[in-house]
Amino acid sequence: xxxxxxxxxxxxxxxxxxxxxxxxxxxxxxxxxxxxxxxxxxxxxxxxxxxxxxxxxxxxxxxxxxxxxxxxxxxxxxxxxxxxxxxxxxxxxxxxxxxxxxxxxxxxxxxxxxxxxxxxxxxxxxxxxxxxxxxxxxxxxxxxxxxxxxxxxxxxxxxxxxxxxxxxxxxxxxxxxxxxxxxxxxxxxxxxxxxxxxxxxxxxxxxxxxxxxxxx
Length: 216
What we know:
The chain is mainly beta and 216 residues long.
């Protein structure tokens, strides 16, 4: 059986090295900065700036948890460019870590959203290219979409925010006689795509009016 004193000594022997390791490995903030545009089209031009207060060591640029680029940091002021850094569609966090003799230092995160060219929306209503004079407009947003803009016969009617795969209703619109042109633009901060649909208005005949003369 292990005595309490022996057990306590074992715990201290294990806990102290683990605590020291955590202090060494825990990233500490430093003065460097990572700068990139907030919204990009699948690639970002990234600028890294180091100051004299930053440590010397191996500098590593991370995109989220993935190492993207690395270089040697001398401990002196420096500016390093990474043009055209590829990014998968979606939001990302860019940060710089420097591994030095004193541990790991970490820069503030830089938030970037990578966009793709939007896929044109799918027109759900009306169907078949025919509709009545007053008809609802319902569409489904495609990938890469942040908003949708509806234009009828050259006149902008409405713009609504949308997410990929979302079904969006623009409400009822009034169609002109004959063939109408519906244009629905899928937009995001860096690109756009327009889907065009021709819809013919159905004109129904007036009911027949029968007059009966009962004067006699």
